[in-house]
Amino acid sequence: TTVLCVMSMITVTAVCWGTLLNHKERRFIDGNAGACAVVCHLAGTNLTTAWAGDCRAILGKKPFLHSILGGGLTADELTLDHQIDSNPAEKHRLVTEHPNEPDVLYRNRVKGRLEPTRAFGDGKYKMMEYFNFYPRLTQRYSQSGWTPPYVTAVPDVSHRTINSSTEFLVLACDGLFQDLTSQEVVESVGEYLQAAKEQKTDHNAASWLTEKALRASASKYTRTGSLDELLALPQGRERRRRHDDITIQVIFFDHNSTYPKQTPSGGRISEPAILSTHRRLPKDALGPPGAISKL
User: Fold this and answer.
1) Residues near 220 by beta carbon (within 8 Å), at least 6 away in sequence
2) For the range 66-72, what are the long-range contacts, defined as Cβ-Cβ under 8 Å and sequence gap of 24 or more?
3) What are the pLDDT digits (tens) for 72-118?
4) Signal peptide location in the record (predicted)?
């Protein structure tokens, strides 16, 4: 199972880099784009997770003795963000590999620029020929130095055993967690399930979380704190300043669930929600059931 997860991510890396290198006229531009990833593999009750970057996988679990003592859902994080400020191992790795570069960790970013310390792409943090494509960067770092690789796509791996206390799995990119904690995400899915049980929502689980994240962002970064004001912002940089792209997948487990087997999306795997800050949000983007949400 571990081999499957790791090999899937390594294969994607190899295919991506091979494609870029074979299209030389575009390889420097495309190869300097970056993306993070997380993948889970379930074999029986054994769940293996591999990730590179700051995407997260979270289990929503009922607490021990839930049937007797009650209590809400708790979050079990299967991943640890590959970021300098939250992952001591990544910080140690970079300092150890680049001992003569004081700015290798600056503003909690790699070389003061990149947040995730592991990712696909981001060629300038891996190969000098991609770095040299940008004259301004070569000039800026002429004194402090630039000695890639800093970033890798090699994943970390974690393992869990799924049991009767495990209600669901959330896979999402960092945009969901910009203004929400993992625990808040799990609690929100619990609220969704209750609303679905009472037939009070047309959302699926992923679009429910999407709206939750957008409302949290709107409350912090708009004048009125309203979702309408956030969605009225022009596409592109102006919107990106308030919230990041969001991609979410929610998977429910069937065993003895205290929640309804069928959700508004019509099954146990909620349709994904995919939001991009580069496009405007259609009026029906957060519904109807089963729709893919786009911003």
Assistant:
1) 179
2) 66/165, 72/187, 72/190
3) 899 999 999 999 999 999 999 999 999 999 999 999 999 999 999 99
4) 1-18
